[in-house]
Amino acid sequence: MLIETRPATDPEIAALVTAQQRELREADGGLDGQATETRHDIRYLAVVLDGRAVACGGVQSLDRDTGEIKRMYVRPAYRGRGIARDLLAALEELAFQLGHHTVCLETGTYLPAAIGLYTSCGYAPIPVYGEYVDNPYSVCFAKRLPLAA
To answer: What PROSITE patterns does its record include (predicted)?
Structure first.
């Protein structure tokens, strides 16, 4: 397994983001209203297996100290292999390299596996923020990153 940076314009990133957004709309009955475009202000990572990107996620800077994990997705055929956990750790490292001391994220109440992953990786619930405030299905989490030795 290889985890590598990819530009927002990468076709495999775009395909993964589209699949992620489609799956979210299907899971919540189309009520979340999230955009399907690949955001160019997000720094993306791709998980590559056998030459194919099978998972992605990104970090978007909210402010100097805080990064938001965005568009985290693992293709269904590759779930249950620890890929999401490894990708999350790599995204935290990317956020740290970008100078962030805290990472936050939003997910849906209808995604218990995602909530379980985040809480098992040290994320704690926080109040819903930003564009998610009016979404009754949104739940948000944050984690303080360890300081460099």
So the answer is: GNAT
Helix (H, G, I), strand (E, B) or coil at 19: helix
Residue 141 tokens, joined: 């989490």
**Strands annotated E in the chain:** 2-6, 43-49, 52-61, 66-74, 102-108, 124-126, 138-144
Residues 6+ apart with CB under 8 A from 34: 21, 24, 25
Tokens for 66, please give them: 């805080």
pTM of the predicted structure, to 2 decimals: 0.91
Residue pair 101/144 in contact by the 8 Å Cβ criterion: yes
For residue 64, what is the DSSP state? S
Which residue, among 82, 84, 18, has the nearest Cα to 55 in the 3D structure? 84
Q: Residue ranges per domain, the chain?
A: 2-103
**Domain range 2-103, CATH class:** alpha beta
pLDDT by residue (tens digit) across 36-48?
Answer: 455 668 999 999 9
* % of the chain exceeding 70 in pLDDT: 90
Give first-to-last CA distance, the chain, whole Å. Answer: 28
